[in-house]
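stage 2 :: seqdesign
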């Protein structure tokens, strides 16, 4: 149909050119314009016809074929025959190509045989020439040899006639003659061999000629077969082309008939085409106006999205504020619950990476923190992240002041008559001593606690009289030693108070009464000098003993006669270490063994307390025995677990954090306040119970027995104990 329409357009173009030549002037131009319009209309019709044809073909492909239509069946049969003829033509072409290849191969073989024959003939000619030359030489030699014996015989005869003296020369001549005859025999043998080789070469030549004739006959026969096959294929091809042409003519007739139907359809499709043209123009106008509409829509959408984002941000901020407020409230309730249950509070502190950790992957940071919860930290151990929840976690950038702000509430409760214990736990080199003692420029919990106690005492000086005493001891190789005594090597023992209260005390332990910050610095300096520290592979200044700073605060309310006694135990435990990594030997090895043994005993005590066993093995170690008052439910206890963030220390960090979680789950019960009513509220009695000067003297830690109180005092005491 397309070809017919193109022919129609060509005829109209020829008609236009003819009319242009016949007509001229204005009428010719008008007619030309009319024909151009008609031409344009026909082009549009042709395009529409092409689209209709494509649509019809698509519909024919989508719809199921009509089984009863003879035209379609004939068309399918003709297409099948045409495809079969095409396949046969392809097979014939393939056979022709194969025959061409075979002829080419045989031609190449014939050329190779001819070359070999030429080479053989050339070699044979050379061999014949060489043999002929050798034959001629041999014949000449034979002729020469035949001529020589007669002369020799003649000479021999002549010699025999002439003289007998020349017998020796005759013998030599005979031997020479015999040698020459042998040479002649050898030459004859060589001649026979050459003649035999010549006969063999002639036979080979005859065989080669026979092979060449056979190859030529085979080549002629193959050439004849190839010509016959090519002629047969040519005839088959012509026959197939004729059949295809006749079938194509039949198909063309059917196409012409279909084209007539299409023309009829085109006449009916013109109104639809005009409608489509109108719709197209309207769509074109809409597309032209679309960018403006799109920009306006985008502006409105951006404004709505910005407003929604702002609302979401404000909602998120409000939710975050509420979450943080609820988190603070939860922490407050949790701390109150911990206080009521008597749980051991556990704080964690992560030291920063130092140059002692080295460089490379082993010094990488393996500890991360939760941005929304300051009580959670995450440890990356062997490719897996392990999370731990404590009561508070201090990152490496936390200062000594920030750490002390979290523990100062416990310290001040010591003034009110409560027993408080703060001990630092962790591997060697994790920063325990720094947290507890600090440096001169940046003191730790010990010195800040005493400074806070003095500040609180001064604030209550109008109504209360306080006395603060300090003792310092260390447990070195399971031996308790006095760091403030004159003989620090003297071993002390832990005993029960004789007053029947069940509390422990250390007879002979030196106490200093401190009244100012200067006294504190002197005590710390005096005790720090005597503490045992050594250098190991893990820590340049490794503490080799457990250090205990015992602060006792005794108060007297002058108005009511209420006496309070509070004790603050600040413990810097020696670091757990692996002997293989620390490189400890000799005395260092013995120290490490005692340290690990005492820390293991502490773990056993924590396990017994956590599982609520009837027997708690406090006496398995001097350390646990001395901390019995702090771990048996009559003290507010805080453990500061110190960890290293370095990758190489993740195993020790994991053990320390797991131990901290176990300690956090221990419930010691409610804490009681140590308060009594006395009948003589005087400063002299308070000073009589405490050292009166800064000079050290030996005394026990036993509490004085109460006197006889009145009924009003007993009532007040019961109320205080109930509130405590």
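stage 2 :: out
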């Amino acid at each position: 149909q397309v070809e017919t329409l193109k022919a129609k357009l060509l005829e109209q173009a020829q008609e236009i050119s003819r009319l242009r030549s016949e007509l001229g002037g204005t009428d010719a131009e008008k007619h030309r314009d009319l024909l151009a319009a008609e031409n344009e209309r026909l082009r549009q019709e042709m395009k529409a016809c092409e689209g209709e044809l494509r649509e019809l073909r698509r519909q024919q492909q989508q719809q199921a074929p009509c089984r009863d239509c003879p035209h379609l069946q004939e068309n399918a049969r003709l297409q099948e025959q045409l495809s079969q003829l095409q396949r046969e033509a392809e097979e014939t072409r393939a056979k022709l190509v194969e025959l061409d290849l075979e002829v080419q191969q045989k031609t190449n073989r014939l050329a190779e045989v001819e070359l070999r024959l030429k080479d053989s003939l050339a070699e044979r000619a050379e061999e014949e020439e060489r043999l002929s030359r050798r034959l001629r030489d041999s014949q000449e030699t034979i002729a020469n040899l035949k001529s020589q014996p007669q002369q020799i015989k003649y000479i021999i005869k002549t010699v025999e006639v002439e003289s007998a003296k020349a017998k020796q020369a005759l013998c030599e001549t005979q031997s020479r003659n015999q040698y020459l005859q042998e040479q002649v025999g050898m030459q004859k043998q060589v001649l026979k061999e050459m003649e035999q080789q010549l006969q063999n070469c002639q036979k080979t030549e005859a065989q080669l000629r026979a092979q060449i004739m056979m190859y030529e006959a085979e080549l002629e026969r193959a050439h004849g077969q190839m010509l016959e096959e090519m002629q047969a294929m040519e005839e088959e091809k012509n026959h197939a082309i004729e059949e295809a042409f006749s079938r194509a003519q039949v198909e063309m007739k059917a196409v012409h008939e279909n084209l007539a139907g299409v023309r009829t359809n085109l006449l009916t499709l013109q109104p639809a085409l005009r409608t489509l043209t109108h719709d197209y123009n309207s769509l074109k106008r809409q597309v032209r106006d679309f960018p403006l509409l799109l920009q306006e829509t985008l502006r409105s959408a951006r404004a709505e999205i910005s407003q929604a984002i702002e609302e979401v941000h404000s909602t998120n901020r409000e939710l975050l504020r509420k979450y943080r407020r609820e988190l603070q409230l939860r922490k407050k309730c949790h701390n109150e619950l911990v206080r009521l249950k008597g749980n051991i509070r556990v704080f964690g502190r992560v030291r920063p990476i130092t140059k002692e950790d080295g460089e490379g992957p082993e010094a990488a940071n393996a500890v991360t923190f939760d941005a929304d919860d300051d009580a959670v930290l995450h440890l990356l151990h062997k490719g897996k992240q392990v999370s731990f929840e404590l009561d508070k976690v201090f990152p490496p950038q936390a200062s000594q002041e920030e750490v002390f702000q979290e523990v100062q509430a416990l310290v001040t409760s010591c003034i009110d008559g409560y027993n408080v214990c703060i001990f630092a736990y962790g591997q060697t080199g994790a920063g325990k001593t720094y947290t507890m003692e600090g440096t001169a420029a940046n003191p730790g919990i010990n010195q800040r606690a005493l400074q806070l106690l003095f500040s609180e005492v001064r604030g209550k000086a109008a109504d209360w009289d306080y006395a603060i005493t300090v003792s310092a001891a260390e447990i070195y190789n399971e031996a308790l030693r006095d760091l403030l005594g004159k003989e620090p090597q003297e071993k002390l023992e832990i005993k029960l108070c004789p007053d029947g209260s069940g509390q422990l005390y250390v007879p002979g332990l030196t106490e200093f009464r401190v009244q100012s910050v200067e006294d504190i610095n002197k005590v710390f300096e005096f005790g720090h000098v005597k503490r045992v520290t050594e250098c190991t592979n893990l820590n340049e200044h490794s503490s080799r003993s457990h250090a205990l700073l015992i602060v006792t605060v005794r108060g007297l309310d002058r108005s009511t006669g209420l006496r309070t006694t509070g004790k603050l135990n600040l413990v810097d435990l020696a670091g757990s270490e692996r002997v293989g990594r620390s490189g400890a030997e000799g005395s260092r090895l013995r120290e490490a063994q005692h340290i690990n043994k005492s820390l293991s005993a502490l773990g056993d005590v924590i396990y017994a307390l956590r599982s609520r066993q009837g027997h708690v093995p406090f006496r398995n170690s001097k350390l646990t025995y001395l901390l019995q008052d702090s771990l048996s439910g009559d003290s507010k206890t805080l453990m500061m677990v110190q960890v290293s963030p370095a990758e190489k220390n993740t195993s020790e960090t994991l053990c320390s954090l797991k131990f901290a979680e176990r300690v956090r789950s221990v419930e010691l019960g409610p804490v009681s306040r140590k308060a009594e009513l006395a009948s003589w509220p005087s400063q002299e009695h308070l000073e009589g119970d405490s050292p009166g000067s800064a000079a050290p003297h030996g005394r026990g830690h036993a509490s004085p027995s109460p006197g006889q109180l009145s009924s009003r005092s007993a009532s007040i005491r019961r109320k205080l104990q109930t509130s405590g």
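stage 3 :: structure notes
- The mean pLDDT is 76.
- The first strand starts at residue 345 and ends at 350.
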